Fold these 2 entries.
Entry 1:
Amino acid sequence: MKIIIDAMGGDNAPQAPIEGGVKAAKELGVDIVFVGKTDIIENELKKHVYPSEKISIAHAATLISNHEEPAKAVRSKKDSSIVVAANMLKNGEGDVLLSMGNTGALLAAGLLIVGRIKGVLRPALATLLPSARGAKMLIDAGANTNCKPENLVQFGIMGSIYMKGVMEVEKPTVGLMSNGEEEGKGDELTKETFPLMKQAPLNFIGNIEGRDVMEGTADVMVCDGFVGNVILKTVEGMGSVVSRELKTMFMGSLLTKLGALFVMNGIKGFRKKMDYREYGGAPLLGTKKPVIKGHGSSDAKAVYNAVRQAKRFVESGIIDEIAKNTN
Amino acid sequence: MKIIIDAMGGDNAPQAPIEGGVKAAKELGVDIVFVGKTDIIENELKKHVYPSEKISIAHAATLISNHEEPAKAVRSKKDSSIVVAANMLKNGEGDVLLSMGNTGALLAAGLLIVGRIKGVLRPALATLLPSARGAKMLIDAGANTNCKPENLVQFGIMGSIYMKGVMEVEKPTVGLMSNGEEEGKGDELTKETFPLMKQAPLNFIGNIEGRDVMEGTADVMVCDGFVGNVILKTVEGMGSVVSRELKTMFMGSLLTKLGALFVMNGIKGFRKKMDYREYGGAPLLGTKKPVIKGHGSSDAKAVYNAVRQAKRFVESGIIDEIAKNTN
C-alpha cells in the first residue's frame, strides 16, 4: 500500500509530515511518497534513518498556502503539492492522500480532481472528536456550508459506514444535531431532514444537542458544514483554553507544582483522552478514492496516527460500501 | 424596585428561587414577589428569616412544565406561574421578571404578553458565557431558529447596548459567528449579514469562529438561535464532562487526593471563572420590559446572582436605549 503525503502542508511542514511519514514507513509496513519540493524533502529526509525502498519523492514546484482562495488555487496551481498529490491518487500512483494543508484546497482537489462517487450528492468532511464515550464522528465538519435534507441523510449513511468499517463500531448510532431533543425541534433544514433520517437505513436515534458532543451520545453526529465547523472549533478552542488555565493553575506556586506532580499521571491520561492527535485526521467521505485531512497543527505523532488511519481506511474497503449505499 | 420571580420554575424549584430571592431581598434592597402556589411558597418561606415587608406572594394555581409545547401552553394556561408573572410585569406590578422554568414558555410569554419594543423585529435570548477574557455575550442563544440578516444586525445592536449599559463594557466589540474569519466565509445568512453589520452603528470586528467563544475575542457574538443554542449547549456539555473527568482524576488514589489538596485553591478559582452561576441569567432583549431566563439547574446562589443582574438591567435604562436604536 502506498500513502501519498503532502509534505508541504500544515503549520509544521515539512518537518512533521516527513518525520511522521518516515516513522509510519518503518512501523506500519506501508510505502510513502512525499509530494513537494524535491530539495526541501531530501534535506529533511537526511535527518532520518529509513528503509529507502519504502520512501519516494514526487516533485511539486509550488504549494497552496492557507490564505489562498481554495477552488481558484486548485484550478490555477497545477504544480502545487496538493494538486500533484490529488492527480497521483486519481491515476493510481498511490492508494490514499493525506494532507495537513489548506482544508478548502484539499476539499476542492478531492471534488474536482479525485471526483465524487456516483450517487454521492456532496462529499463531506468527517472529524473524529473525543468524548466521554470515546471517539465520535462529526459530519459535515466544514465542507458544505449550505445543505439540503438529502445531503444530511447521505452524511449519516457515509459516516455510519466509516464508523463501522474503520472504527469497528457495530451498528453506529446516528443523531441529528438540533436545538432540542424532541422531534419537532430544529430549524427548517433539520425539521425536513428528521423524517428522511427515520426512513433511511440508519440506526437513527433522533435529534441530539450540543451537550451530546462531549457526552458522546451518538457515534455519528450529523449537521451541515457551517454548524459542524462552529462545533469543531468551539470544542478545540475550549480544549486549548482549559489546558492553558490548568497549566497556569498548576504552575502557580511551589505547593501547586508539588500537587501537580502527584496528579501528573491522571492529567496525562486526561490529556491523552482529549488529544486530537490520538484520533488521526478527518476523512473526506464521498470521493472515489480516500482523502484524509490532517489537522493543520499536526506534529509528527499526529501525522503518524493519521497514516495509520489512512491505512485502515484503504483496507476497510468502505468506498465500495459507500458507492453501494448511496445509489 | 420590585422583582417578579417565578417560584415554580427550574430543576430546584421552589427551594432555590425562594432561597435566592429571600437573600436578594435582604442584601440587595429590592422587593420580591414570588409567583406560584401560595401554600407551597408559604411553606418554603417558613424556612427563612426575612423582612416581611419586602416579600410578597402572587398566587398562580398551576405551572408550565419543561415538557409542554411552549406557545400552546402560554395561550391555554392563564393561571400558570409564568403567564401570571408576565401579566404582572405588563401591568406594572413589578419591574422585571425572572424565571428558571421552561425557556420556550418564557420566550412566548415575553413575546405574546409583555410584547416587543416597536421596531424590534425579533426579541433574542442573550446568554453570558465565561471566556479567557471574562463574560461575553452570545446572542441569539435560542429564541429564533430561522433568522434574516436584519434580525442578526438587531441582535448585534441590542447586545451591544446591554454589554455597555449592564456589563459596563465601553464600545463592545461585535463579531459575526461564521465558519472562517475572512469576509467571504459563511453560509447564505451570514454572507448577507456581513455588509449590513459593517454599515450598522456597531463596533463590528468581522467574522469570528467557534474558537473565539472561549478565547473571548468579541464582547458580543452574533448568530441565529439554532447555532447559538448548539454553541451554548456544546460549551455547557464540555464544561460538565471536563469537571467530571478532573474530579475522577483527583479522587483516583490517596496520592492524587493529596495532590488535589495542594491545587485546591487554583481549582476553585478556575471553576469560579467557568461557573455559569456567577454570570446570572440570560436576558431576553427586545421586549418592552425586562425579562430574564435563569438557568434551569440554578441553585440559590445562581438565583441570587440573577436577581442582582435583574436589578442592574432595570437601573440601566437600556430598554429605552434599545427602542431608540431599533427604529
Note: Chain B has a mean pLDDT of 93.
Entry 2:
Amino acid sequence: MIQFQCDYNEGCHPEILKRLAETNMEQTVGYGCDEYCKAAAEAIKKACNAPQADVHFLVGGTQTNATVISSILRPHQGAICASTGHINVHETGAIEHSGHKCLALPAVNGCINAKQIDEALALHFNDPEPEHTIQPGVVYISYPTEYGTLYSKKELQEISETCHKYNVPLFIDGARLGYGLMSEASDITLSEIAQLADVFYIGGTKQGALFGEAVVITNENLKRDFRYLIKTNGAMLAKGRLLGIQFLTLFTHNLYFDIAREADKQAQRIRKAFLDKGYKLHVDSPTNQQFIVLPDNDMERLGKDFLFSKWEKVDDKHTAVRFCTSWATKPENVDKLIAAI
Amino acid sequence: MIQFQCDYNEGCHPEILKRLAETNMEQTVGYGCDEYCKAAAEAIKKACNAPQADVHFLVGGTQTNATVISSILRPHQGAICASTGHINVHETGAIEHSGHKCLALPAVNGCINAKQIDEALALHFNDPEPEHTIQPGVVYISYPTEYGTLYSKKELQEISETCHKYNVPLFIDGARLGYGLMSEASDITLSEIAQLADVFYIGGTKQGALFGEAVVITNENLKRDFRYLIKTNGAMLAKGRLLGIQFLTLFTHNLYFDIAREADKQAQRIRKAFLDKGYKLHVDSPTNQQFIVLPDNDMERLGKDFLFSKWEKVDDKHTAVRFCTSWATKPENVDKLIAAI
Amino acid sequence: MIQFQCDYNEGCHPEILKRLAETNMEQTVGYGCDEYCKAAAEAIKKACNAPQADVHFLVGGTQTNATVISSILRPHQGAICASTGHINVHETGAIEHSGHKCLALPAVNGCINAKQIDEALALHFNDPEPEHTIQPGVVYISYPTEYGTLYSKKELQEISETCHKYNVPLFIDGARLGYGLMSEASDITLSEIAQLADVFYIGGTKQGALFGEAVVITNENLKRDFRYLIKTNGAMLAKGRLLGIQFLTLFTHNLYFDIAREADKQAQRIRKAFLDKGYKLHVDSPTNQQFIVLPDNDMERLGKDFLFSKWEKVDDKHTAVRFCTSWATKPENVDKLIAAI
Amino acid sequence: MIQFQCDYNEGCHPEILKRLAETNMEQTVGYGCDEYCKAAAEAIKKACNAPQADVHFLVGGTQTNATVISSILRPHQGAICASTGHINVHETGAIEHSGHKCLALPAVNGCINAKQIDEALALHFNDPEPEHTIQPGVVYISYPTEYGTLYSKKELQEISETCHKYNVPLFIDGARLGYGLMSEASDITLSEIAQLADVFYIGGTKQGALFGEAVVITNENLKRDFRYLIKTNGAMLAKGRLLGIQFLTLFTHNLYFDIAREADKQAQRIRKAFLDKGYKLHVDSPTNQQFIVLPDNDMERLGKDFLFSKWEKVDDKHTAVRFCTSWATKPENVDKLIAAI
C-alpha cells in the first residue's frame, strides 16, 4: 500500500536524521536556550531578511496556533479566519479552549479576501455599541491554504493593509509554507511574507522534520513574554535542541525549499495525470495537495493499492479525495499512481 | 564543562536512535493510530499488568499534566497537590490556564501524606455550604517527587484509599517513574502503581527518549474521549509513531528499567562522595537527583568544571544545589566529579 | 420619546416592587438559601409540573447561558446552536471565554430544525476519527427565538428526540419564555417544555422582574454541583432573596403569564397596524418583538417620536427595525405609535 | 433570631428603595448607558477627586474581581494576593476559571506588606529564566481586609510604590470600602485610595445597596475595552440604571459614608462588650466585622437568640466566630446582644 493520504507519513529527511545522530550525545542546556536553537533562529531570520524578528520553536501546528493567538488576544477578542481555516474546523476547539472565538468568514477555495476582512472589521469597529459582540483581535490566514491554494502577493498586501488599517495584527499559518513558496504559481518570497505578516510560522512537521514549527514574530508589540506563553501552553520542549538542530539543517544549503519544490513537482504530475484522463479537480491546487473528484468505483479501485483521504461527498456517485506529496514522496510511487489512474 | 544540571542534557538512548533510523522511511498513518503506538501500548499494559488500561502518548510533562487534569475536572474543581508539586510551581500556570486551581498542601521533602489529604477532603466535603470554595476533584502526586524522594508502598496505599473514600481520583506524575521504581529504596512495582493510581504517566523525556510521556488510564470513568482532550490541548503529535517507536524500544528487553537503575547507581555514588567529605544533604534522595548544601566558595569552585542547578539559598554562605544523573551519565564523568569533591 | 427599542426599558412590575418594599428590612440568609428562594423554586416546579427538578436563580441571561453550558461540557465539546442564537452573536464570547465553541447551524427566522441537528450530530458521531473536531455536547435553542418566532410542539419534540438519540442534552434559552408560551401561535405548555428540555431557563429580566433568570434542571445528570458552578461564574447573588421574592411574585396568581399575554397582544396590534398600511414584515413574529421593513424616510419620521432598534439594512433604501412591547407597555403609547404609522 | 452573620441580611437602604420606586416606570436605555449611571459615575469621580477615572458598575464582588483581574492579565500571569484574600479562598475558583493563578503570600490578620510583595516580585523578575513560573501581573489587596483589618496610609503607599517599581498594577477590593474609610482607625481618604490604586472598587452590596459594585479605573492603560470585558464575563446588567440609581443615591448627601460610620460604631460597641467581659479577640478589627473567640458553651448559649458565623476552631473548646454589623443594624438589637454577652 503506497500512502498519499497526508504529508507526514514518514519520519524525517535523512540529512536531519544524520545531524540528530551526530549530535545525540552532546550535552546542551534545555528549553530552547542552546546553541543550535540560536543558530537556527539566526538562519531563519537571515532567510526572512528580518534581523529584528524573534524566532521561537514549538512542536506542532495546533499548539502553535493556540499559543500565538492566545498570546495576542484579550478575553473579549476573537480571530477572524476562513470558514475552512484549520483553527476553525480541525483543532478540536483548541482556540476556544484558550478562550477565544474563531470569527469565520465564508471561504472560496480556502481563501478569504481583503474586502471581506474590511467589511467584518468595519462592521465591528463602526458599531456605536460594539461591546455586545466579540472584537476581532487578529486575522488568521494560511499560506498555502488547507486546500492547497495560494494567495497572490497583491492579495496578501491588501489583506495586510486592511489589518493594519484597523490596528489588528495578521498571523499567517505556514504549516506548509515551503510548498507554497516553491510552487510555480507563487509570486511571493519568504522575506515578503515576513514583511506583510505580524507573526507567522514556518512548518517543519510536514516538510522534512520529525516535528516542529518555527514562529517568527516581526511585530515588536507581539514579542513580549512569548517564552512564558510557550510554557503556559505546554509547548516548551525540554530537549529544545532537537528543534534547533532540525531547523538549522532545513535552513542550511536551502534544504527546506529544495525538498518542497520537488514535492510540488510530484503533486503537479498527479494533477496532470488526473486531468489528462478527464477527471475533475475539486479544487485547483498548485501545491503539494491535490483534490480530485473521483467516481466511487474509481475510488474503490485506486484504494486497493493506494492510501488517500476521502475529503467529502460531492454527489451520490462522486467523492472528492486528497492526494498529498511530501519531501519523502518517491517519484516511482507517483509513477505507479499515474499508471493506475 | 560536564553537565549534571538536569536529566535531559543529551538526545536519546542509542537503541532508540537506531530504531528511529531503521523505521524512518516507513509509511504510517498519523496521530498515534499506527502499529508502533499499538505495540508500545500493549507492551506498557503488559509491564503494568493492566490489560484493561488505556495508554496514550503525549510529548511533554507540563502538557501531559494539563491534559490529564483538565480531562478529569469540572470548572469548579481543583487539584490537590504538594506545595512543591511541579504543577504548582514550575508550569507557568498551565493548570490554571486550563481553568483549575492547584490546591497546595504543605510538603515535606516533596511529599504529602494521606492524613493531610484526608483533612483537606473532609474539610471541604463536610462543609454544609461547600459551594463557596473549590471542590477538590483530583489528587496529584509525583513519584518520585520533585525532590527525588519516594513514597513507600504503604504511604501510596493510604493515599489511594483516602482518595477513593471521597471518590476523588489519584493521578501520579511519573516524569521520572523509572528512577523511582529502580531505586534501592523503592518497595513498589509498576504494576502496583497501576493498581493504586486512577491515571498516571510514565516519563520518557527524562529517561532515554527524545521526548514523550505515556499516560496510563486504569479508571474506566476517566477513559472517555481522552484522544479528543489530547488534541484540544495541542498535544497530539502528527507523526505519532515517533512516540510509539520510542516507548516500544524502552519497553523491550527491560531497557527503561535498566537505564534508570544505572542512573540511580551513579547518583548514589555522588551522594556518598559528598557525605564522605562531610557535606550536608539538602534533601536525602534515593533516586537520580541529589540535593547538596554547598558553601558558596565550594559552589564556585565546582562550578568551573561542572554544570549543576542552584536550587535555593540556605543561608548567607550556603546554597542548596542539584546534581542529576540520567541514562546518559558516563561513569567517568561521575569519577571526575567525585575527584573534584 | 416613547421607547419600544427593547423589553427592559422600565424597572419592575409594581407588584414586585411592592413585595421588595414589604420585605426590605427582613433578615434572611444569603446566596439563595432563604425561604423566598425555596418558595419560588417550589412554585416554579409546580408550574412546570416537574416536582423532581432543581431550580436555581441567576441574575442575567449571558451569565446564565455561560454557566449552564460550561456546567455541561467537557473541554473538547461545543454547543450546537442557530447561527442567529444569542450565544453565537450577542454575548461577546462568553461561551468561548468558558472554553467552548458555538457550533452554529444556518438558521431560518431564528430557528434550526431536527434534521439539521441530526445531520450535524451524525456527521460527528459517525466519523471514524472524530477526535480532530469538536464534539457536540449540548444543543442550545431559544424559545421564542431572537427573532420572536416559535417552534411548534412537534418541532420541539423532534429536536428533543434527536438530541436524546445521541445522548446530547437539550438546553432551551427562555429569556422571553412567557411571551412565547402566551402567544396565540404557541401550541405548547410550560410543563411540556420542562419535559422536552434537559435544562431551560425562565427569563425574568425581560418579563417583569428587575433582573433574574430561573434555571430549571430536569435531567438528573446535569444537577450535580450546580451551585458551585453559579459561584465559579460570578453569578451567585449575595442577597439571593431578591431573586426569590421576584420569582415568587411572578409565579403567584399567574402574574408571569398574564403580563406576557398582554405584551403579546400589544405587539400584535403594532404588527397589524404596519401590515394594514402595506409595510412588509422582516420576520413574521407572533410574540412581543416585531420586525418591520421600513423605507428610510419612514424610519426617520417615526424616529422623531419613538425609539426602536435598527436591526439590519435590507437594501439601499430600506431598513429592518424592531419594536418590542413588554409587561410595561402602555396601550396608549401603542395607540400613539399606530396613529403615527 | 437576630442576625449578625453577615452584612447582607436585609434589602437596601430605604432611601435607595424610595428612589427605585420613584423611577420605576421611567424608560431608559439599557446596559449602563443611561443618565443615572452617568450621574452616578460623575458623583463617584468627584468623591474620588479623580476626574479622569473611568467608572463601571457590576453586580457582585466575585464577578467584579474576576472581570477586573482577567482584564489586566495575559495568560501567563497571576495575581499576588494574601493567603486569606477573597479571590484565593472564597470564590470557588472564579479567578482560575478565567485562567489565572492566585499567587498567595502569607497573611497576618488579613494583610500582606510591601516587603513581602517586593520579595515576590524581585524573586520573579530577577530570575534569569523566569518563564518557567507564573509572572505576577497584578497585586490584589482588600481594604478593609476579609478580617476587618486596615492598612495604614503609609503601608498602602509602600505597597503602591512597590507595585509601580515593577510596573505591576495595584487592585484594591473595596467590597467594604466605606466601613474601612469611616473607621476611627483609618488614616486615609477615598481620594488617596484612588491615587494609590490603579483600579479599585467601591462595594455597594454590603453597604446599603440591593447589589452592585462600582469599579474605578484610574490607570489609563487599564481602561481600554472594559465594557467588553464586563459583557464577556456575564456581568453586564440589562437594566443598568438600577446600579446607577443605587450608587447615585449612595453618593448623594454623603449617604454611603454616613451609614458605614454608624455600622462601624455599632460594631465597636460589640467589640467593647466582649472585651469588657474578658473574651479574647480572634482578630482585632476596627471595622464592621468582629472576630471573637468564644468558649463552645457560650457559643451555644448566644446561638439561641443570635445568628453569627462560625469562623474556625481555635482549640478543642473554643471557636472563633464573626459578628457583622451593617447599615441596617438596629442599635436596639446590638443592645440585646450586649445584654446577652
Note: Chain A touches chain C at residues 75-78, 89-93, 96-97, 99-102, 131-135 (CB under 8 Å).
